[in-house]
C-alpha cells in the first residue's frame, strides 16, 4: 500500500516535470515575474491618485509607500530600487 502511494507521487512529480519542460516553464515563470514587477509601479501610482481624492496627496503617498515597503520583500527588490520607487511616489508629479 505504502509503495503504491510513493509510486503515485513519484509518477505525478515526473509528469509535472515533463509538463514544465514541455511548456518551457522557466521562461514563463520569468516572464510572469517581469511583468508583475512592471505592473507594480503603475498600480502604486494609481492608488496614490485614487487615495488623494479622499485625503491629502502626501498622506495617500506615504500610505502607499508604506504598503509597498511592507508587502515587497527586500530580497525581491533591492533596497535602492525600493527607495527609488518611494522617492518617486513622494516627489510626485507636481
Percent helix, as a range, is over 70%
Q: Tell me the count of domains.
A: 1
How are helices and strands ordered from N to C? Answer: HHHH
Helix run count: 4
Distance between the termini: 69 Å
Key structural traits:
4 helices, elongated, 0% strand, single chain, mainly alpha, 94 residues
What features would you describe in this structure?
With 94 residues, the protein is mainly α. The chain has one domain (2-91). It has helices spanning 2-22, 25-51, 57-71, 79-91. Helix 3 (57-71) packs antiparallel against helix 4 (79-91). The longest helix has 27 residues, at 25-51.
Q: What's the short version?
A:
By secondary structure, the chain is mostly helical.
Secondary-structure map with pairings?
Blueprint: H1 2-22, H2 25-51, H3 57-71, H4 79-91
Helix pairs in contact: 2-3, 3-4
Amino acid at each position: 500500500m505504502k509503495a503504491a502511494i510513493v509510486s503515485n507521487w513519484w509518477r505525478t512529480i515526473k509528469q509535472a516535470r515533463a509538463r514544465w519542460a514541455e511548456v518551457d516553464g522557466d521562461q514563463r515563470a520569468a516572464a510572469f515575474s517581469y511583468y508583475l514587477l512592471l505592473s507594480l509601479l503603475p498600480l502604486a501610482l494609481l492608488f496614490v491618485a485614487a487615495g488623494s481624492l479622499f485625503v491629502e496627496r502626501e498622506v495617500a503617498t506615504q500610505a502607499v509607500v508604506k504598503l509597498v515597503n511592507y508587502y515587497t520583500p527586500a530580497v525581491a527588490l533591492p533596497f535602492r530600487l525600493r527607495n527609488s520607487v518611494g522617492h518617486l511616489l513622494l516627489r510626485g508629479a507636481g
